[in-house]
Design goal:
Blueprint (H helix, E strand, L loop, with lengths): L3 E7 L3 H12 L4 E4 L6 H5 L14 H14 L11 E4 L4 E5 L2 E10 L20 E2 L2 H4 L7 E6 L5 H8 L4 E6 L11 E3 L4 E6 L3 E6 L3 E3 L2 E5 L5 H4 L5 E2 L2 E2 L12 E3 L10 H28 L1
Parallel strand pairs: 1-2, 1-5, 5-16, 6-13, 7-8, 7-13, 8-9
Antiparallel strand pairs: 3-4, 4-5, 10-11, 11-12, 14-15
């Protein structure tokens, strides 16, 4: 780690991208985490009629317009999944697998994660349940793990895990054939419950029970409470004020992650506000440092 950013933006949907273009306009040193295919939700929208200035586009076409916009402004996406954000007092430590980044402010724009927790998921979190294979793989050396993958993006983590664990079961919860090595056993079934006593010992699927030491649940969006310890939630969403400030100084949030209505234009608008509030926060910090 050799540099500290003014702003770390986590998420490459409309909220994160809008925050990034405003950070660029305001000449801040920022880093944008996400993936180059931008918002997966946008890709799923057959037709979008309510984004001002872009009538009758598919979600995919809207995404392509977003992509052109950031390229034109020379904004790059750091293709990394963030697993944890820790507040360190006057800056944030942002963990992407084994990589650590530092930033004075953070804008959370990771979208909303739908779906209920699996039975046993919360009970065994940290005792056999994990959300990050790259972070926790070492704990499962020569052990048996099941990986529940919510999208093809998770296959790389399963492949990595197979180099460490003695056996990896991969349960894809999406259509299409996973691209994995023959050493990984793919099971097409529905996870029902994580079982164990002190630690995880088995995963119950609809049609069978597999004995495992660990269960990795890999999704695109990690729940915000797990992503940022200490962040104040309002149900499943992060609580923010009108300036997109969370309860943690220097930490802002925008888009679906802060609540309904789940809409492109609201997400982009909130990304704009979050970036401008972050800019004001940084400028104020710099002014105070100069005065002292
Ligand atoms: C089928 C469908 C149709 C829709 N139709 C419309 C419509 O017609 N009009 C409309 O206004 N809205 C529509 N929406 C809603 C719209 O897609 C969302 O409101 C919008 O995408 C929210 O933007 P966001 O930036 O908050 O989150 P998202 O678009 O979900 O983007 C989140 C981004 O964060 C990234 N990310 C997540 N976690 C991490 C992490 N830990 N580290 C790094 N990156 C991470 C993801 O990869 C993604 O790039 C539709 C949604 C769906 C599913």
């Amino acid at each position: 780690m050799d540099e500290r950013y003014d702003i770390a933006i986590i998420g490459s949907g409309p909220a994160g991208l809008s925050a990034a273009i405003n950070a660029r306009i305001r000449n801040k040193k920022f880093i944008l985490f996400g993936n180059k295919s931008l918002s997966q939700k946008a890709e799923k929208a057959h037709r979008v009629d309510n984004y001002l200035g872009f009538y009758n586009l598919t979600g995919s076409e809207l995404n392509q317009n977003f992509a052109k916009h950031i390229v034109a402004m020379d904004i790059e996406i750091q293709e990394e999944k963030i697993n944890m954000v820790y507040t360190m007092g006057d800056y944030y430590s942002i963990m992407a697998g084994n990589q650590v980044y530092e930033a004075t402010t953070v804008i959370l724009a990771t979208g909303v994660s739908f779906g209920k927790a699996l039975k046993g998921e919360e009970q065994f979190l940290g005792r056999g349940v994990s959300y990050c294979a790259t972070c926790d793989a070492a704990l499962y050396r020569e052990k048996v793990v099941a990986i529940i993958g919510h999208s093809p993006h998770e296959e790389a983590e399963a492949q990595f895990m197979s180099e460490i664990a003695s056996k990896v079961y991969y349960i894809p919860l999406y259509k299409g054939e996973p691209h994995l090595g023959p050493e990984i056993e793919i099971i097409r079934d529905i996870p029902v419950e994580i079982m164990g006593n002190q630690k995880v010992s088995a995963l119950t699927l609809k049609n069978e029970i597999i004995e495992v030491d660990g269960v990795f649940i890999l999704k695109e969006a990690v729940s915000p409470g797990q992503l940022v310890p200490g962040i104040k939630m309002d149900g499943n969403h992060i609580e923010v004020d009108r300036k997109m400030r969370t309860n943690l100084p220097g930490c802002f949030a925008a888009g679906d992650i802060v609540g309904a209505p789940y809409q492109f234009i609201k997400a982009a608008g909130e990304g704009n506000i979050a970036a401008l509030t972050a800019v004001a926060y940084i400028d104020e910090l710099k002014r105070k440092v100069k005065e002292n």
